[in-house]
Amino acid sequence: MNAQLSPTLQPVSSPCEAIAVAHGDGIGPEIMDAVLHVLRHAAPALRLQPVAMGHAAYLDGHSTGILPQTWDVLAEHPVLLKGPMTTPQGGGYKSINVTLRKTLGLYANVRPCVAYHPYVASPHPGMDVVIIRENEEDTYGGIEHRQTDEVVQCLKLITRPGCERIVRYAFEYAVAHRRGKVTCMTKDNIMKMTDGLFHRVFDEIAAEYPQIQAEHRIIDIGAARLATRPRDFDVIVTPNLYGDIISDIAAEIAGSIGLAPSANIGLHGAMFEAVHGSAPDIADKNIANPSGLLLASVQMLLHIGQANAAQAIHNAWLRTIEDGLHTHDLFNERTSRRRVGTREFAHAVIERLGQQPQHLPKVAYDGAPASATSTRAPAPVRARADKQLEGVDVFLDWNGQPRDPDELARRLQAATPAGFRLAVITNRGVKVWPNGHPDTFCTDHWRCRFKATQGWLDACRVPELLGRLVEQGFEAVKTENLYRFGDQAGYSAAQGE
Ligand code: NAD
Known about the structure:
Bound molecules: nicotinamide-adenine-dinucleotide
CATH topology of the domain at 1-107 and 255-363: Isopropylmalate Dehydrogenase
Strand order of the largest sheet: 2-1-3-12-11-4-5-10-8-9
Structural class: alpha/beta
Helix content: 25-40%
Low-confidence stretches: 9-14, 367-377
CATH architecture of the domain at 1-107 and 255-363: 3-Layer(aba) Sandwich
Oligomer: single chain
Mean pLDDT: 91
Shape: elongated
CATH class of the domain at 1-107 and 255-363: Alpha Beta
Number of strands: 20
Distance between the termini: 52 Å
């Protein structure tokens, strides 16, 4: 079975026909024109509403690359077909994609990675993997701070509702597409709380789908296996950063990143695009491959309930590839018959509407969205855990010479008010006091963990502690409260603690 591209899980009662279209930068306008040309033949009822975003909007002074009036259009046209956008170099500019995904709540990124061997050379013929990447959380909040002369940090935020939504989406996707296995990839051997939560939620939700095989891999070996044995995988669900990386690897080893589509799905809207960027090196030459965006438009048609048009385009595209009409990026002497430009490729697909591939597996979308809504009751509202404050981590910018943790501890203990005890000091997460190792490298950024000497702390004691430290000449650059949730610590132990 060839990969079915539908990312849709909610059935669409009546086909939606109004689509917002952003042409994009670089090769964007030419590949979008090619795709719209195909859509006008295969789905003539679509109403296409152009929207302004991209490089010109950035240069016009809009730091997100999106004009204010574009949001009004998107409110009325919650389905967006988007060309690739160029992000200007330099600080101050935000990624359009990140802005759209987060503002519109497009929490699920669905990337099918399929090999079209032998027509598109791939080291892994038969590869057919769908990567479902969490799209809003993780380190992509862009919450970064420089805290000392030497140290910067990025916050990694993982939420239970975010994990539940994306993991359930992955299992529902597997059910809807008759796929047998969902693999979760995290690094919870190191990040026991953040990635640990993702893994735990995966195990909880997997238990509701006994018909689907569920497995977990640590992301490093998981990514290595994906690159070498992709046929071991079916559907993969993973947090944002890992998903970003492995979906590009998977698209590349399938044959070409230029063929990969990407759907960004939310509860109220969706965005469809190619995985590749704006390729300024080949812009305006009529040589770009429009396939990634065309296959994204197939995902879009399925999402809006136009399964017949989606099937017709997808099969015509497969037939075009099989017939050896290839753009320059795919052209090779062995399997290509003719090198075609962007426009000619689109014409070739249009000529083949109604035809099916003869060798590659054809797709069958059966006149209805390959979709399934969960009939399960919504997750019960969870009782909030009993939460008690038992200490505080105070992060100091301290450049003592020498940087001696024992000296720092002596000075801190002298400044510690009654009711607190200094429990541990770490540097870059590694315990350096008490009983640190003399070889541990220390920066100017120290995490000093204070615990209540007895029972729980009143929150107003934290400012008192900070005040004392400041009085003694310390510079606290950040604090993190240490809570106990029920019988579980809400913080990690220091490495070596
Ligand atoms: P890129 O994907 O644009 O190009 C990488 C290479 O692949 C280039 O050699 C290019 O010629 C080739 N290529 C890409 N798409 C092709 C196609 N359809 N047909 C034939 N060849 C193709 O990546 P990049 O050069 O790193 O990024 C260029 C710009 O695109 C940057 O400003 C980047 O920020 C942006 N970008 C945007 C998106 C998006 O809008 N979704 C995604 C990635 C990168």
